[in-house]
Amino acid sequence: MIRRSWVFAWCCAALWACSAPSGCACGGFTPLPQGSYSGPKLNSAGAARMSAHGFGALNANALTILDAFAPGGQLVVPVPCSEQAVSVGPIPAGKLIIADTGGLYCTAESCGRMDGVCNPAIDVGHTITLAFTSLTFAPKSPDLLEAKVTATVQTGRLPISSVGNSAVLCLSSNRAKFTVDLDTGRAPPASTDLNIDIKFAIDTRWDQLLSLEVANVGNAQACSGSTTPPNCIDPADMEILNEGCSTLAIASLAPVKALLINQLAASLRTQITEALSDANCAACGPMGECPTFGAATSSCETDAGVCRDTMTGKCVPSLFGAEGRLEVGQALGAFGAPANSAIELSFGAGGSAEANPAGLTAGLRGGARELAVASCVAPVTRPAPATLPLPDFDLDAPAPYDIGLSVSGQMVSELLFRAQQSGALCLELGTENVSALESGLLATLLPSLGLLTDGRNVPLRVVIRPVNPPVAVVGAGTVDANGRPLDPLLRLNWRGVELDVYALLDDRLARLFTVSADLSLPFGVTLDGCSGVTPVVGSLMGAVTNVTIKNSETLAEPLSVLQNLVPSLLTLAEPALAGGLSAFTVPGFNGFQLKMVGARGIGHLSGSTTYNHVGLYAELLSGGPACVPVMKRASTQLVRSVVKSKASASLELAVGRRYSWRVDGGFWSTWQEPNPLARLDVEHPRLLLGGAHVIDVRTESGDVQSLVVRDEAGSAQR
User: Fold this and answer.
1) 136: domain CATH number?
2) How many CA atoms does the CB half-sphere of 680 hold within 13 Å?
């Protein structure tokens, strides 16, 4: 289920998805076969916010938004045939049939026009036209979005007749028959100001989803007393033409004018409510199926194609967000994950909402569940975490912004937990997915392995067993002047990971040793160009602790040698994980483009260095190429590389400023500055392994160059 909205655009970003023009149609992310997600959810999975500055950017381009629901700035509002009682002062004047049009193209009473009968099977009704000249949005306490529109109202000739004779209106024994023509442009001011309050309600019957409701349509009534245009509709702008009375009591029609204006205003309110409902109601399924939630049931209103609550009659709110199935087995099957591994996800607006003059924030509810617990892990249950308050985006903003998105550390941990339970982290690496995974990689570090293989280069196999699920800890996301992380945006703490290393000896896989270790992996994002976001990793040196070795009797080396080797072996899985967290472009929406301005932790936990949410911030741009891509500069040359000692390499650069690098297709590093000698120092556990390694270096202009480095000092090959 996918709905396009500014909330949806951010939801997709949070899932590291949706670089496709059609929306969240990313590889491996497919619709839910059962239609909607029904698993556990977190009420504080994240939040989306539009700041006061963002509302200013929105209002500067509001006519573009207006054109989406009122093409050309015009909205046609239907006025159905209806029967209304009317009085002139204290005197009843009978009943009037409003919009007594008869059939299509009818011009006489014989086909139903002004026949004094409201027959839905015959009377087609009338239409009025609203011509909008302005639109502005503003947040309004406690949870409202106020839309202010300026519009002229034109009814054309609206036919009205009385039920039976009306001596009060007709001054005779005849039925009253007349037309009215309202045009607010007849006298200044030409337009009417309408204030439409849209409530960001939370539907407690339907999974606490966000439900948009028209709370009020202000100024849509006839002027009376001290209320004057443009804050009301002036009855003086209405003309009445007699079409049947011998003498129409024009002086008696003032209350009729007010009645008609208020009737038209009611139709306008209904039209706005229904228009909002169309964007907010859950659609019926292909066979007319509609959702249930707990005791709440719904049925399909076939004419409108939407689902309505069978008890309240109200629309069932649709999901402003994304739901789908992540086919983990398809994405990571080549790296050993079970072929049937899959996780169902839901992420969308709900749970809470609040507004004030500084902006509007909508909470995001999210959930995940594995289809089945994989055989490679033990089933684990855990209690739901406590609900977090909505984050204060403005307090922690790194720069002025228009739109913000947060994903809570709780939600990230939930995704990691479900990934572990689904088997997504049960990885098995061999030469079929890591071509260099042969005993020669370890030859210089494990001389006794060469004795076991008789000096031959034999295939290795590394099996990673995720005994425990990883846990996410959100940090400040700060970096130093050189771009190196001071406090990672996100740290994944993974306790008790087990790793088995095998070698093909005598035509069978023999286990060389088993490792248990704790991992602490520092992650962040870099903002590339206008709306590009790239997940990056901080230094992996020292990321592995509490290493224990067992089942190593086959090898002669001391345990300390094997312990030093563990970080390098674990990085063999880095390319697979990097492929699952690849760069993406935050999608635009409704003619707007997003320019990323910052990422950091928000919602600081008092007395700690941690935060509740990962926050992304962006500016709202419109009008075509407002966000110009960075122009490419002259390509920076990598002069030479030297593998120094152990897990370090030094790249000598001809010119240039900031760089990011990766080793053997793993995660990109954060942006870094070369040292005063124009060298970029690379430290990575993977370089400790033997053989050749590919180091990619990218510049902010988008250039990427690769260098192959080898064990021998001074050797390099382009």
Assistant:
1) 3.15.10
2) 33
